[in-house]
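Suppose you are handed a protein chain with no further information: no name, no annotation, nothing but its sequence. What can you learn? This example shows the usual starting point.
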Amino acid sequence: MMACLLLFLRQEVSASDRDKDMIRVSVDYTYYAPPSAGEDEAKVNALKRAKLQAVEDHFGTTVQQNNSTLVIADGNNSDVKFTSQAESEVRGEWVQTIGVPEYKVWYDGGLVVNVRVKGFIRPIDETQTDLDIKVLCNGVSDKFERTEFHDGDDLFVRVTSSVDGFIAVYLSDMNNVYCLLPYPDDDGHASFIRGGVARTLFSYDHNDADESVKQYHLTCEQGVEVNMLYVIFSVKNFDKAVDDMADTLLPRQLPDERFRKWLSSCKRRDRQFQIREFALRSYEKSVIYWK
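A reasonable first move is to predict its three-dimensional structure. Written in structure tokens, the prediction is:
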């Protein structure tokens, strides 16, 4: 009995140490959408900016100034060009959302969205892995990079990491979330990626000796929809979220709420757990299938 009690106490202390630097916040943010944005896209951007504002307000940003001088010599003449570029980096991250964000939408010369959201944030105190991620439509070279899709378009993602690690990819339609990687026939663990080597996902011609690869394309019905693509990376291996096969033509899926709980749990346990979000605008309602 005593051994079990001591083990339980050690686990509690470990969890407390892991979460001690997290801060609970409440954010109220108003977003003025551009004319081209629909309501769904405006809500996505409003929530993203609200989370960023909360992190910046508490932890600030680091601004780096990069200066360079170029001297071009031509015979007896020379031309000096001076350039300066400033880059800012947020010094914290949003870890977990509490409850459901509350939205108010109205028009005031354009679409306006107000969002109220609560959650936990924490400072970033470790150097995260450098990632280069490109979303590609109908081709795998850089010229096909875009986040706008039409009926029948193929979706590819190219990921390059500075170090060895593991990746997973999910697509959300705001109600259901589809697991695109690991593939349905894989063992449920995140997919390995080798550092310094670009990996093209969802392409039969670039399958990296992975025979279980699936190639996805979007089919659309009437309307415009914004889907969120999540590319997830960690230097540590991790398991995918619990999901179900609801349709033989669709990837495995899970409810959006369960997916977000899984994301929060992973981020709390692993500081190297990175999430990159891409808003995919689909002209007409999109459904993702594999070929």
